[in-house]
What does this fold into?
Amino acid sequence: MSATQTQPNIKSRDQRFSNLQRTLVLIKPDAVQRGLVGQIVARFEARGLALAGLKLLQMDEQRAAKLYEPHVGRPFYDGLVKYMTSGPIVALCLEGVDTITVVRKMMGATKPAEAEPGTIRGDFAQRVDFNIVHGSDAPESAARELPIFFGNDELVSHDPSYTFFL
Ligand code: DAT
Ligand code: MG
It folds into this structure.
């Protein structure tokens, strides 16, 4: 008798997870400088999101321009690119159920003054121009943004044991 027959709650990940998504998260230069990387990653881990990719890098202007292409022409664009290229960042690919929405909620509003306490921006940020984290805002954005930071060979799909409980 197989494990799935003796333990009826054990289903494959595809059966358990109806809307499995991957999203891009960037821990921005201000957060790296302030030593917040561990706390931020810990929040995503505690929520049960799986790490599919993780790296430390410093963006050049070309990469930042690709990421922020939808914001070209905005008054804050030049400052945003300067800030995002000013120091190392940590890029994460997170995987889980409805992960794009979950991450956006965990990040909080773009303007930290509007971000609820308990969110990453609501707990760690004061300024919109130093707002700690980036997260893809829709499946199309995640699909566009992830390849800017990760090649396919740098992303790992796995089924962490704790997902049995999610
Ligand atoms: P989000 O990062 O919440 O998706 P967004 O995509 O509208 O927000 O903007 C991208 C980043 O640009 C944002 O994280 C910080 C910066 N930004 C947005 N609005 C700004 C403003 N009014 N002044 C300065 N920076 C701003
Ligand atoms: Mg955005």
